[in-house]
Response regulator transcription factor (Leptonema illini), 204 residues
Amino acid sequence: MHIILADDHTLFREGLASLLQRKLEISKVYEADDVAGLLAHLERPVHFSLILVDYTMPGMEGMATVRRIVELSARPVVVISAIGDRSLIRELFHSGVAGFIPKTARSELMIGALQLVLSGGIYVPDILLDVGEAEPSDMAPLSERQIGILRQIAEGKSNREIASSLNISEHTVRVHITALMKIYGAANRTRLVMLVRSRGHLLI
């Protein structure tokens, strides 16, 4: 597996690259310290599984640059940043990113978030959600994989049945369900389905 990691803070970038190679079995991390370097990597004849981007690195011109990276990469783009503005994070999701991870996040959280994205999910940070049930305006769009899992939960299927039908592991199913419960602020599977249906997010 190959990924791109673009961040202009050398110590952070190199430390994160080392962590990802140890924890995610990544063959090679292509590093860049600005947007130009990131775009140059995207032109390589390499299949990238993930693009990690710092929102404030040189060459970043707001959402226009983010949307360009999303369009060019054709792979999940995750933004990492010290900025914690909720409206900005919501706008990033509407621009097509698959996740936002604060730079202050613990290594365990960061690895878990990236595993979720790599398995087809969307990672939403705690800062985007109020305590309790999330309002629709604060929510990121769900991935096709997450919608598929929601439908099967609503049908009463077990984790084993969902895993078998989607050809993924039970662990991956649990990771997705945990993320979905977090997104909706649901305490259990039953409440999750109720919230999803009440907001018209699940048509089955």
Remarks:
- The first strand starts at residue 2 and ends at 6.
- DSSP finds nine helices and five strands in the chain.
- The radius of gyration is 17 Å.
